Sequence to fold (378 residues):
Amino acid sequence: MKISIIGAGIGGLTTAIALKQKGFEVEIFEASKDFRKAGSGINLAINAMQVFRRLGVYKEISSLGSYTDSLLITDEKLNIITKVNLVNAEREFKAKTFAIHRATLHTILLNKLNGVKIHLNKKLKSLSQTNDEVNFIFEDGTAYTSNILIGADGIHSVVRKSIFDNTELRIAKQACWRGIVKIDIPKKYQTELNELWGKGKRFGFVHINENEVYWYALANYKTDYEKEFSNINLEELFSNFSPLIKKIISKTENNDIIFNEMIDLKPISSWYYKNVCLIGDASHATTPNMGQGACQAIESAYVIAACLSTEKNIQTAFYKLEKIRKKDAKKIVKTSWTVGKMAHLENRFGIFLRNNIMRLMPKILIEKQSTSIYKLNY
Ligand SMILES: Cc1cc2nc3c(=O)[nH]c(=O)nc-3n(C[C@H](O)[C@H](O)[C@H](O)COP(=O)(O)OP(=O)(O)OC[C@H]3O[C@@H](n4cnc5c(N)ncnc54)[C@H](O)[C@@H]3O)c2cc1C
Fold:
């Protein structure tokens, strides 16, 4: 049986690794001409790292990434509002959290795909299905056929639009800047991910290796983020934050900063149609407020391969994937949306109330909430 994957992002590559390990014949089609060095980092939580352990890439990620032992939300001046210590969860699930350069993660995943054909510069245009085959055409006019097609082509998925016509992207009205900087910051931040919540904006930073810090900044906008922030000076926008933030921004090369807006996919009722199935952001894109988008993609990638290897019937395998993964992925999308709104309050009294309620929340409850995300139910 031949399986073709559209998209060589984290979701597509992980799916290919999992399928290859189950003995399937796989090939990947990717729109980009080459794998450019993505200028941002990514946090891989304990759920994703458990999957990566099963797939045999844990060691590489842990040696090339940076270990994170706690997640903190603070006010603008880095005064702690809440802290999740990950050590208990690490013990329970026998995996740790790592932040890593996206390009490094990409290389690690690609290295696991020896023998898998990756066609670059292949942007999917359309597809059609017969009973047991999928035919698909690229923008360069070439056409291919496969038994199964997996759409791992991200939030704007052409595969999704080809099989469903009623899906909806939601705009969070938050603009986002991301950067990587070589910088010395106080030692205590070496193993922490800190997110500073201000008035209608926030700033997060985490080490991705010994020398480099990955940071992200978000701010509310009203109607047009590109226009409203076209002449923005980030140092000024975050001037009321801790002086460390100014230092991080000022040391970052301007050209390397990625700027976009936050959107998600309103949960869709099904992830497959006949022999075509969606994976990752194509099926369950979330806002990044819980750092779970890729982690969820990694989980779904593992599960789809497991289901296809145990079920003879393709439809049953896809049905099982949905049954195992859909509820959890939907919960992340919903919770993440709410967290994003809470983080960006603009009203002073609302902020005061939110911070104090969060400060008073029992530690055990906070840890329990986050560890429920890390449990794999397959
Ligand atoms: C600001 C920000 C911070 C984030 N931080 C985190 C984090 O810390 N932790 C975490 O787990 N997640 C995080 N995420 C989410 C994470 O980036 C995504 O969930 C993840 O990258 C999704 O992977 P994917 O492979 O499904 O899709 P994508 O990464 O979007 O990959 C899709 C691939 O398909 C290709 N493609 C698209 N269209 C076509 C086509 N027509 N034909 C062929 N190929 C095509 C694209 O070129 C791309 O290579 C963050 C997201 C954002 C925006």
